[in-house]
Amino acid sequence: MASNGVGSSRSSKGVKASSSSVDWLTRDLVEMRIRDKVETDDERDSEPDIIDGAGTEPGHVIRTTVRGRNGQSRQTVSYISEHVVGTGSFGMVFQAKCRETGEIVAIKKVLQDKRYKNRELQIMQMLDHPNVVALKHSFYTRADNEEVYLNLVLEFVPETVNRAARSYTRTNQLMPLIYVKLYTYQICRALAYIHNCFGLCHRDIKPQNLLVNPHTHQLKICDFGSAKVLVKGEPNVSYICSRYYRAPELIFGASEYTPAIDIWSTGCVMAELLLGQPLFPGESGVDQLVEIIKVFQKRLPPEAVDLLCRFFQYSPNLRCTALEACIHPLFDELRDPNTRLPNGRPLPPLFNFKPQELSGIPSEIVNRLVPEHARKQNFFMALDA
């Protein structure tokens, strides 16, 4: 299962690998990367006010203030809690409505350790991508027991890839291949953005952390609570990433790893969508990879099998990068201007690349990545032409 050409993470000259992308970091993110810094008194003074009362029961009203835009004064915003949509070791996520605008949002509520900066908040404040859930603003609340919670106000996306996949499983159906392609491509595009532009590794790619609009099928990665900038020579915890989606190096306890662990997880998600069930339901399942690929060869187009083989390289250095995955022939159907969703609607935006995403990428790679019809529609690429 060795890979050549575009499938190898070291083969495409000019495509920046994650190790070199650390140089692109802003000073704030570098400081965050080096240590989970203890806050100073000056930093605490600059934080937003803490709101007393941290209830999430339906009908509970949370009033906070947000910074005004373009020099405007701070504005008061009220959120009416509707219902809890998810819980975990991190805290909870609840759906709420903005009283002033009627907008539905998702609020992620996380218990704070006062000694440390919250890495997720800093990361979310820097990210801006169509395949990454957007942070609107944040505020703090204090519970009756004096514990303080960070609340991240995020755009609301009604569905997850996990629930979408289960809806097919319940009826003994497999997800249509066009949706598997769409979701896998958008995961890879988001990972290319965070890996190459920030040197950031998500470390918890799984169907539950992939939001999807059921009408447009636009996908957004969420939950950056485990995300971290990985620096060569710096140790990291190996017990990271959910069990079914852990790369071999994590299973074997490696403390120095790369964003290639996200690529392995993406392969697990893609395979799960194709199979209708998790590919590796136990840690020993990785040993059966060769036999599993043989089964795939009988059921899937050769392009799908080839991409899975590139995702599932045991050696992290041989796995394809996220950007290389985006230009894989499996996704050529998505670059066809005549391709439509099964219901006849157009595909979601897939090629609205910003200059930051394409910085340093050779023109021949860009030409394979962005189809001609999309280049004409992209303003900054049209100017280059």
From TrEMBL:
ATP binds at residue 109. Residues 1-22, 35-58 are annotated as: Disordered. Keywords: ATP-binding, Kinase, Nucleotide-binding, Serine/threonine-protein kinase, Transferase. Residues 79-331 form the Protein kinase domain. The keyword Mitochondrion does not apply. PROSITE patterns: PROTEIN_KINASE_ATP (PS00107), PROTEIN_KINASE_DOM (PS50011), PROTEIN_KINASE_ST (PS00108). Pfam families: Pkinase. Residues 39-50 have a biased composition (Acidic residues). Its EC number is 2.7.11.1. Belongs to the protein kinase superfamily. CMGC Ser/Thr protein kinase family. GSK-3 subfamily. This is non-specific serine/threonine protein kinase.
